[in-house]
């Protein structure tokens, strides 16, 4: 998913969950194609930057929120442009579609075609036909019918508890946000399961191009009506966050219907069993790690003792003299020695 962009005009935003500052904002994008002439002179090229600047100049007093190249070939350059609101889309298309560009140094005229951006979003026909034709689905069972939406590219920070310093998304917040459309039966945020990546081999921690951590989630509704309302509301929309200071940013999210039985009872039991097995393996690894650390500490202590014993051995010439055995001397010698000491 692309990075969040600043929103200057929030007039078209609709409420999703105001208590968490979340809104839905219409996607207001267009595709612009510029046909390129054949380059007859060797070494001569067309500047993509110059073409982009000419397009910006064609919309007069208005401005693109974003304008980027989505594809460039020898025959054409395709751009994706975004504006602040829906009314501007029509105004921009009127200024661009069917018009021409004249570049400096080229005699050929470049023709411009512009159209509203075609949104990639499943239709009711898509999920109805999928579940009707799927041989391994039982539409009487939750998770095996159109009741679960799959969301990708949700910013973690926007779904974190408001009274927490953590930026980790919360399932409780996810429920609070999406229960607007109907009663929720179950939710799942795969990245919150410490064993999920090990079990599946997938990486659920996905960074967007802007460096913000995003996550994917599954939301399952009790009733088909809740699923329908959620899909209808999310169609053609961006997710927008509005802070307490009134400033707003928005990002694109990917929304689809779940076709993998992710929240079916059988899949949930399988993940729970896998998590228990992974937890047991983790405990075994932790036990082995502690045993290895204990063995290493013991070997280190033995090496230290050996080094200490070596360092404290005295050289033979400096050994402590043995104590004198007075019983081995004659009594007269002892008395004479004592008398000599007294007289001195």
List keywords for this structure.
34% helix; 344 residues; Alpha-Beta Plaits; five-stranded antiparallel β-sheet; 15 strands; 8 helices; alpha+beta; extended; 24% strand
Q: What does it look like?
A:
The protein has 344 residues and is an alpha+beta fold. Among the domains are: 28-116, 2-Layer Sandwich (Alpha-Beta Plaits), CATH 3.30.70.330; 124-272, RRM (RNA recognition motif) domain (Alpha-Beta Plaits, 2-Layer Sandwich), CATH 3.30.70.330. 34% of the residues lie in helices and 24% in strands. It has eight helices and 15 strands. A five-stranded antiparallel sheet has the order 1-14-13-3-2, covered by helices on one side. A hairpin with a 6-residue loop joins strand 7 and strand 8 (109-116). The termini are far apart.
CATH class of one domain: Alpha Beta
CATH homologous superfamily annotation of one domain: RRM (RNA recognition motif) domain
Count of alpha/pi helices: 8
User: How far apart are the first and last residues' alpha carbons, in Å?
Assistant: 105 Å
Order of helices and strands: EEEEHEEHEEHEHEHEEHEEEHH
Shape estimate: extended
The CATH topology of one domain: Alpha-Beta Plaits
CATH level-two architecture of one domain: 2-Layer Sandwich
Unreliable segments of 5+ consecutive residues: 204-212
Using DSSP, what is the number of strands?
15
Largest sheet: 5 strands, antiparallel
Widest β-sheet, arrangement of strands: 1-14-13-3-2
CA-based gyration radius: 38 Å
Protein name: A-kinase anchor protein 17A
Organism: Castor canadensis
InterPro entries: AK17A/B, Nucleotide-bd_a/b_plait_sf, RBD_domain_sf
Pfam family, one: RBD_AKAP-17A
